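In response to reviewer comment 3 from the previous cycle, which asked for concrete evidence that the modeling workflow produces usable outputs, we include below a single protein chain processed end to end. The sequence was submitted unchanged, and the resulting structure tokens are shown without manual editing.
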Amino acid sequence: IVGAFLFAPLFMGVFGGQIVGLNVLCYALLLALAFRHGMSADVLSGVVAGIWMVKPHYGLAAVTVLICERRWMACISWSVVTAILWALGALVAGVNWVSGWLAFARHFAEIDLVTNAHQMTGIVPTLYSVAVKLGLSLSPSGWELFATSAALLVPAGILIATRYERSRKATPGGALLFLGPLLIIFAPMVNFYDLSLGLVPLMAIFRP
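The workflow returned the following structure tokens.
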């Protein structure tokens, strides 16, 4: 697999474009490791969540689960991997590359919502499409505020799921089953192909 990604067109096709396969792989690995015990499983969970920071809102949601479940070794390894990713970006684009990326992402999100909402899932693009059909208007800053508010429901949902799993004394890691559906519904700029995240918990639940 590593050798295959050394082929530049394949590398750019995966990491420079849509990374649906990587999203599903990271989520599946996190779920698989969540039901294992021991420090090594926690460390690897943090590594996977750190790698998932290439899609930051997914990686941040994943580490939110780890924090809520008090898996501190996983949080430490996530921090190390995230720091390495930041350092690699700094080598290429300077130490302030994150702020530049955020500015670009904000600009792109406004354009993407207008041109691509019909291909998206989730509450924000759905309501945007309905508003357009009904002839209603809301400023870009208004939609940005609404999208931010909806995105905050992801960590809120994770906290509720963690407490629910703890109250019924379920196997640690069960809250991760809710991560995919929460991202599909509330995360900003989730496209139809990201529905694959909903398949991962279903496979975990119905595994033989």
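Residues 24 and 197 are 6 Å apart (CA to CA). We consider this sufficient to address the reviewer's concern, and the full set will be provided in the supplementary archive.
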